[in-house]
UniProtKB/TrEMBL annotation:
Pathway: One-carbon metabolism; tetrahydrofolate interconversion. The lineage of its organism: Bacteria, Pseudomonadati, Bacteroidota, Flavobacteriia, Flavobacteriales. It catalyses: (6R)-5,10-methylene-5,6,7,8-tetrahydrofolate + NADP(+) = (6R)-5,10-methenyltetrahydrofolate + NADPH; (6R)-5,10-methenyltetrahydrofolate + H2O = (6R)-10-formyltetrahydrofolate + H(+). This is Bifunctional protein FolD. Transmembrane segments: none annotated. NADP(+) binds at G164, R165, S166, I234. It comes from the Bacteria. The gene is folD.
């Protein structure tokens, strides 16, 4: 069994990005500038956004954090998005999800200028992804592709089973693994809450990507010998530690890792890759804007 070490690979990527930023600085060019909007006080969301801003600083990007109260109306949020769309200093921005219930998420995501949509959540960018066009691939799926690529995990002709059809992970992952090229050329099965006999399907899988958010859901009996297992779960489970919780994945790691050929740990697998790929998308956004003399 080999660990797919997202912590290490994400550090490699951040170092590569830092070198690119240094070149921009040496040439007196603008450096990438990422903005993040967060609405409300959800602890996990605040932590994630904080990590994104910190990562920007680490690689030499500019960053702006826009904090809005949980009572923010949809109109107020749309106005802020319009401001960021029009702000030439901002190369890319994200609206941290989930949003409070008075706000229509789809309407918000559609208001983001696709050329600044570094999360890749705008329908235009999602469509471009499905059509193999240049786009911003959502950070978590992009991170998984990058792990598969850097570890040389064979995907061609393999049966990939994706568990969960969320717009952020499962759905895009199912599209990306079936695209032409590497990583891709996989035969994909997308499973979800209405799938019958899921273990019968997962035991046929060469690659399992689970993005469910149910701790220890994927048991050893559900995995065939030699399978590649990618765990996207990041559920906070209460414990006795100082923080009061630990992060738990969807995979029963101790037993599944004995059967897997490659496996991502939680924490330290897919999680750190997500932030690195958001930075990569922001660098791409800056390069595209430079081409347009912006
Ligand atoms: N909430 C959970 N994951 C994400 C993400 O990748 N981007 C944003 N904006 N919000 C999220």
């Amino acid at each position: 069994m080999q660990l797919l070490d997202g912590k290490k690979i994400s550090e490699d990527i951040k170092n590569e990005i830092t070198a690119e930023v240094q070149k921009m600085k040496d040439n007196n060019e603008k450096v990438p500038h990422l903005a993040a909007i967060i609405v409300g006080n959800d602890g996990a969301s605040l932590t994630y956004v904080g990590s994104k801003v910190k990562a920007c600083e680490k690689v030499g990007f500019e960053s702006t954090l826009v904090k809005m109260p949980s009572t923010t109306s949809e109109t107020e949020l749309l106005k802020k998005i319009k401001e960021l769309n029009q702000d030439d200093n901002i190369d890319g921005f994200i609206v941290q999800l989930p949003l409070p219930e008075q706000i229509d998420t789809q309407k918000v995501l559609m208001a983001v200028d696709p050329s600044k949509d570094v999360d890749g959540f705008h329908p235009e960018n999602f469509g471009r992804m499905a059509l193999d066009m240049t786009t911003f691939i959502p950070a978590t799926p992009f991170g998984i592709l990058e792990l598969l690529e850097r570890y040389g995990v064979e995907t061609q002709g393999k049966h990939t089973v994706v568990i969960g059809r969320s717009h952020i992970v499962g759905r895009p992952m199912s599209i990306l693994m079936g695209r032409k090229g590497f990583p891709g050329n996989s035969t994909v099965t997308l499973t979800h809450s209405y799938t019958k006999n899921i273990a019968q399907i997962t035991t046929q899988a060469d690659i399992i990507i689970t993005a469910l958010g149910v701790p220890n859901y994927l048991k050893a009996e559900m995995v065939k010998d030699g399978a590649v297992v990618i765990d996207v779960g990041i559920t906070r489970v209460a414990d006795e530690s100082e923080k009061g919780y630990r992060i738990t994945g969807d995979v029963d790691f101790d037993l599944v890792s004995k059967k897997a050929s490659f496996i991502t740990p939680v924490p330290g697998g897919v999680g750190p890759m997500t932030i690195a790929m958001l930075l990569k998308n922001t660098l791409l956004a800056r390069e595209q804007r430079k081409e347009r003399n912006l």
